Amino acid sequence: MSPQSVPATLRRSELGKLVDLFVSELPLRLSVIEQLVSANDRESLCRAAHQLKSSAGSYGFGDLCLYAGRVEALCRSSQTSQELLLEAVDELLDQAHRVAA
């Protein structure tokens, strides 16, 4: 193994650990999102969806990133009905459960 490949291998290993940590913490994030939507706390839900979107995108979970982004965008719009928001959150939760499985 060349000296240049050692740092690259270490970075991949460290990234793998971070991805595993993200996936292991996903149920907690989903629980928070469920609580926030139940409480109709759109501001906090928007922040939680934004954080999930950013993390999911950073770790290569593009689909999850898109679903979280949709929830975030719907939260920001005062025109979004609670029904539409609930539907988007359900879709996000379904996608996140696929990632965690």
TrEMBL record:
UniProt GO molecular function: protein kinase activity
A biological-process GO annotation: phosphorelay signal transduction system
Keywords: Phosphoprotein
PROSITE patterns given in the database record: HPT
Domain of life: Bacteria
Record-linked InterPro entries: HPT_dom_sf, Sig_transdc_His_kin_Hpt_dom
Record-annotated membrane-spanning stretches: none
Domain HPt: 11-101
Pfam (any one): Hpt
Residues with the Phosphohistidine modification: 50
Protein name: Hpt domain protein
Native source species: Aeoliella mucimassa
